[in-house]
Design a protein that fits this description.
44% of the residues lie in helices and 13% in strands. The protein has 327 residues and is α+β, with helices and mostly antiparallel strands. Strands 1, 2, 3, 4, 5, 6 and 7 form a seven-stranded mixed sheet that branches. The protein has a two-stranded antiparallel sheet with strand order 8-9. It starts with 8 loop residues before the first helix and ends with a helix.
């Protein structure tokens, strides 16, 4: 029991599995000189609890964009069974951040060896890793970058709901016969057609900003992954010399014109400190108190049960194991 909140033995095993995964990430980052910060609830837990927030069930990390891309480039060095899932390492992935998992299997199984290796945790666990990008100081450029990113961010979400197989559909298929790749049984067919039109308009607008397209896009390969990568490239377009702030670009997409309230000052990330986190330590930006205040307000005050997703995250995995007669 922590702070009058009961933590089950199964959750403790899951925490231990996550700490082991975190240790593998930290070891790889140290080897290559990659900066890796505790972020979101993990940063809050380190600062306020010296470990997990009692009612939290996962670990979040952040890396400056340059370090983030380097991390992905060396991620294959993570020892088995760990692996990194991202739009740069997988053919099928639907998130702009990356996830480090404790299994290289794609199908969930009851694996006695994995359970033993991860302290009794039978689940696939994932540590989220986010890229921290520079925000332009110039307001006009800032608004333009946010607008283009937001369009791409929402269009990738629309593709998932509109197309039959979003990860395989190409721009040529859409152009030749869009009705073949749109979900035919949808009750909102007009919206699906409109989504295709928005997608085409977005790509036309992007052609005006060559720095985001690089060598262009392939009309015959997966448009979804290409659009994800182009949108991520938009997020990373600003360099330190033109930056006024730092932030996670999904904040800009979700908060719209109100996003500036989440912006973090550059000097908050100029150096790092180490904070205790359970039986290890985590690296945090030296301005972590200001970061927490920006994100949570009065972060010293505990509000129980405020996980951003259903607690515990492994509910569906547990139900599957119950169906198999394993739990």
């Amino acid at each position: 029991v922590r702070d009058d909140f009961t933590i089950s033995s199964l959750m403790k095993s899951t925490w231990a599995a996550e700490l082991k995964t975190l240790d593998a990430i930290q070891t790889l980052c140290k080897k290559h000189g990659i900066t890796c910060y505790a972020a979101f609830g993990t940063l809050l837990g380190a600062a306020r609890h010296g470990g997990f927030v009692p009612w939290d069930d996962d670990i979040d990390l952040a890396m400056p964009r340059q370090d983030y891309m380097r991390f992905l480039s060396v991620s294959s060095e993570l020892p088995a069974p760990f692996r990194v899932k991202s739009i740069y390492t997988q053919d099928v992935f639907t998130q702009f951040h990356s996830v480090v998992t404790n299994s290289r299997e794609t199908k969930l199984t009851w694996d006695e060896n994995r359970i033993k290796e991860f302290y009794g945790c039978p689940f696939f666990i994932g540590i989220d890793v986010y890229a921290l990008d520079y925000i332009p100081e110039d307001k006009n450029r800032q608004d333009l970058q946010r607008l283009i990113y937001t369009m791409g961010y929402h269009l990738t979400g629309q593709m998932e709901s509109v197309f039959i197989e979003p990860h395989t559909v190409s721009l040529k298929q859409i152009s030749d016969n869009p009705m073949e790749v749109i979900k035919a049984d949808t009750d909102e067919l007009d919206l699906s057609v409109e989504a295709v039109k928005q997608l085409e308009d977005f790509l036309k607008e992007l052609s005006l900003f060559g720095q985001y397209l690089g060598t262009g896009y392939d009309e015959t390969s997966s448009l979804f992954i290409q659009l994800m990568k182009i949108t991520d490239q938009v997020a990373s377009n600003c360099g330190r010399e033109d930056a006024g702030f730092m932030d996670f670009f999904h904040h800009l997409a979700k908060l719209g014109e109100n996003c500036s309230r989440m912006f973090r000052k550059l000097e908050w990330y100029d150096s790092t400190v180490e904070l205790p986190f359970e039986n290890i330590t985590v690296t945090v930006p030296s301005g972590y108190k200001d970061i927490l205040t920006t994100q949570y307000g009065d972060w010293h005050t505990e509000i129980k049960g405020t996980s951003m997703h259903g607690y515990p995250f492994y509910k569906s995995q547990m139900e599957y194991f119950k169906y198999l007669g394993k739990m």
